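Attaching the record inline, Q. Sequence:
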Amino acid sequence: MGARASDVVEALCAGAPRRARAWLRLLRRRRGRGRPSAPWTLAHEAAAFFWEGRFDRALALAEQARGGEQTPRLAEAVAVACLALSGRPGEARARFDAGGPGLRKWSSAYAAFDGRALEAMLLHHEGREAESRAALEQVLAHARDAPSRRLARYYLAAIAHGAAQPVQAGLSMRTKARSTS
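Structure, as predicted:
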C-alpha cells in the first residue's frame, strides 16, 4: 500500500505534522498517476512546518508553492499566518488583501484558519483588539472544526489577558460551573 494525498490530510487533521511530512516524502517518490502536483506538495509541507512552529521554513515553502496560476490557497494562508506571527503584520495584511475574496472565503479543516480566522488573527497582530475580538467571536460561533475553534479561543484568551479581563474564551456553562465548585 502506497502513500496517498489523503494520508497527508489525515495527518494534518490529527495534529501530526511530522507524520504528514513523512507521507509527503513518500508521495514525492511516486511516479505517474496519483502523484500530487508540486505546488500542492509544497503547500502541505509548508502547513506541516507551520504547525511545528518553524515559520521561516514554512514561509519559504509557501513562497515556492506560489508559482503560476495554480497556487494553492493553503500556501497563501500559511504565508499570511507566518508573516503575522513573525512580527510582519503589514506584509501579512498586504498579502491577505492581495488574495482577494478567494482567500477571505477559503477554509480548510486542517489548517485551523479559514479566511475569517486568518483575518481575525491579522487584526490582533495589527493591534486592532476590539475588531479582532468581534471577528474571533464570529469564528467561534460558526467554526465546525476543532482547530479553528482552538485558534479562536487562543486569540480571545490573549486579548482578554492583555486587557486584564476574565477569560471567557468559549467556555461552556458546564465548564464554568465545574471550575467554581
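The two ends are 52 Å apart (CA to CA). DSSP finds eleven helices and no strands in the chain.

More tomorrow.
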